[in-house]
Amino acid sequence: xxxxxNSEYDHATCAPRLLLVEDxxxxxxxxxxxxxxxxxxxxxxxxxxxxxxxxxxxxxDLVILDVMLxxxxxxxxxxxxxxxxxxxxxxxxxxxxxxxxxxxxxxxxADDYLPKPFFVEELVARIRAVLARKSGHVLDEISAGDMxxxxxxxHATWRGTVAQLSQREFHLVECLIRSPNHIFSRQQxxxxxxxxxxxxxxxxxxxxxxxxxxxxxxxxxxxRMFPIETIRGVGYRFCLDEGT
Length: 244
Ligand code: CA
Prior knowledge:
Shape: elongated
Number of strands: 14
Strand content: 15-25%
Number of helices: 8
Bound molecules: calcium ion
């Protein structure tokens, strides 16, 4: 069986170049399709030995490495790569999502670890986060406290949870985190985010906040909901957690 991609990289583009090392053909197909739709150039190989050879070519901006692979395991590949002093960013992809496996991956020098099954959107967000950290370019991101918003992908990250936000949800969170601890009334949020400047009887702001909290797995603590707090009778604010 041929690899899903044998083409050379197009050096005329500046899209990040990724290597996918994955032996399960159905997973490889859906990952390749998702990554290419997201604008990445991706090459694919199906076993650890080919993966190692490709990585040592040094042409890749990031490697997505399955753990259970024929020839060499993902862990063995990364050990060899790091022993040779190659710092290429690596994200492990594995059905072995138990904590000891994840910790072993990080100890070996992985940059991230995504357990299977996963959504390709989350892989894309993690790839972008790793590439941004490595390059020091965080211009596409806005952060406050533990919350990060990616302006390109509209992903929000809060304490390890990554969520894809709709346009409205994104602008609502953006509005709140640009002025941390500032209390916004529902009317102000309606105006900023929905462009509604009169005062209709609507609960769209509250419904939108609830959706965001659910997506980001926000948790109540000490009677307050972190990080987006309801100020009773007034509106909402993004709390910077001074306690940590
Ligand atoms: Ca595998």
